[in-house]
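Help! Submission page says 'invalid entity' but I think these are all valid:
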Amino acid sequence: MSYPLLEFKKEIIDEVKRVVEVSEELIEIEVPSEERGDFALPCYSLSPTLEKDPESIAEFIAGKIELNRGEFDQAGPYLNFKTDEHHLSRETIRGCLEKKEDFGELSPKEKKIMIEHTSANPNGPLHVGRARNPIIGDTLARIYEKIGYDVERQYYVNDIGRQMAILTWGRQNLDEEDLTPLQRDKEDYDLVRYYQKASQMLEEDEGLETEIRSLIRAMEEGDDEVFHSLKKNSETVLSGITRSLERLNIHFDSYQHESSFIVDGSVQEVIEMLSKLKETDKEEGALFFNLDDDKIFVTREDGTNLYPARDIAYHIWKAERADELIDILGEDHKNHGEFIKNALLSLDIDPIPEIVFYSFVSFEGEEMSTRKGTYVTLDEFMDTAEEKAREEILKRRDDLSEEVVGEIAEKVGISAVRYNVIRVQPRKPIDFRWDEALNFQGDSAPFIQYSYARTHGILEKAEEGLELDGLNLEGLEDGEVRLLRKIAELPLVLLKTAENNAPHLMARYAYELAAEFNQFYRDYPVLDSDEKRKERLAIVKSFSYSMESVLDTLGMKKTKKM
RNA sequence: GGGCGUGUGGCCUAGUCUGGAUAUGGCGACAGCCUCCUAAGCUGUAGCUCAGGGGUUCAAAUCCCCUCACGCCCGCCA
């Protein structure tokens, strides 16, 4: 099994290469507007190498090229290629019926990729802003899996360090009655109150700083009691965080604890390796790495290690276990990310990570901070999304049981949260507003889910099985071919999304696919279409499978009723 | 002050890396479409010259320089 558009693109590249004898990098195939064709070759970039004007090159290629899978025409300096519609339709339907909800998947690559995402400090519940991280990471993980990678999703648990020391101090010294009332019956909501109160006290009383410091030192020096106390608190909050994420359809394959790199001595080794580099120097006994004009400190003057050192140890550990690495980091870590890459390069470590940075999310124009307690938690946001979904369902349906309404609301709520976060390019800032985030019309999760639900209105009433062999695909109408063509794009989109680590492309595709189906649905009756019924059912079924694949890739939920 | 990033119709957004053929789509607005597989849908109209200025090029939203606005970073915190 292979995919018609992938094959066609490959054929074009091979043929152009054969005809003009240039290296493959010079052949830039782009996707033109729909009416021009499936692919286009602008000949401008070949002009310098071939020492001819673009139009003559186009003419030259047009005269020599031979394609089995489609045709082409010359338009000035462009060549436009259009695949054979019948072949495209047949192969796309065949692909969908064979692969079903895995449509779009590519053969295994024998490559391991480790995707680190979230890695939020376990000091309180996840807020919507932070949730951008797991949603980007998990979506990329799903995409890499689909194109054949062996994927490991990893949470790096910052179970030591200052923030955990503050939480632990709070747990040791504060009583329940000192705290704000419990917002939600969940362990992360419980413990964050200790963290917030302790942070607040620390701001008012600098004397507490020494107590925090001594907790950190005790931990690093291997004080068992302190160590276990920190770990216990971090594990408790972590379990609250992961429960929230599971609700968002996100899970991890492994957890790696920051403390482990201190315990096993690897941080010390890293510090020794770093100290031998020409990029490092010491200032009053503290080791730092020169990053352009910045000094990135990796140890304190008392010799205790700092987060950058531990993160290098972690990345070396990761590099030994995977062929490719991806880190999802907030924009506040840009500098740190540069340091990690530069330091790993200097240490001759391979692979170094690809880092996806995302900008922060504000809410109704306000910044969110765990320390200050100014945030909307992921749980709250999802509750509201579900509630809103419920209202919308009840506006339209009065024939569903409360249980069914609840199920659909949950599916729509989860999907809306994920979709609204992933549809925007990571590096762009997002300002969440309830009315926009929970707008269920147009470019939204329910729009996409609804297109899928519509297929079931049809498929459940049609009981016959589907056989590719009995179909007459010669006389398909424009809108039918257009839908199949859009379905056929899926593998191309998956590849491009992974290549650029740009998951928003996948979201955009999901919307376009759904929109194309909605037009088909309007124009072509299926069940009453007599002589075209079988063919149209096959198209609906193909769309249904491809949409299942797309929804799964975005971590969204499918629903047969809405 | 320095570094990084962002700035596309009233609002949100694609395209920017890899310069090219009429700048993508949504929300909102206005005008239409349910005796017919779920109207959370579909169709049409109006609206942007791509923050501003300069430059490179046959060609710039896309590359370079300057300016403005906003965000993030500039800790022996993480």
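Support: the input was valid. A stray whitespace character was the problem, and the output above is from the cleaned input. Residues 224-247 of chain A form the longest helix (24 residues).
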